[in-house]
Give the backbone structure.
Amino acid sequence: MIIYNVTTIIEESIHEEYLNFMHEIHMPEVMASGKFTSCQLLRLTEPINEGITYCAQYFTDSSTKLSDYRETYSPKLQEDFKERFENKYVSFRSVLESISPIQ
C-alpha cells in the first residue's frame, strides 16, 4: 500500500472554508482520478504550529498510479487550490509505503 500524504498548514481564518473545500470539492476530485482506493483527512494535534495543520492521505496499490496522478491530475488541482487559498497556507507532499502490520 502506498500513501500519498499532503500536509497543509492553514491560517485559522480560513479553517471552515478549507474543510468544506476539501470534503466537498478537492478530495472528491482527487478520488475521481481513479488512481486511489480511499482517502482520509487528519488534523495534526501535536506539535502545535502557527495555524492549523491537516494531512490529506490518499491510498493506492501502485506507484505507477501515483506517478500518473502526479503527472496528469495533480498540477491542475494544485493550481485550483493555490488560487482559492493564495498566501493563506503552506503545503508539502510526501509518499509513504506500508511495510507490514504489527501482529
About this structure: The chain has one domain: 2-97. The beta strands are 2-10, 38-43, 52-60, 89-97. The first strand starts at residue 2 and ends at 10. The helical segments are 15-32, 63-72, 74-85.
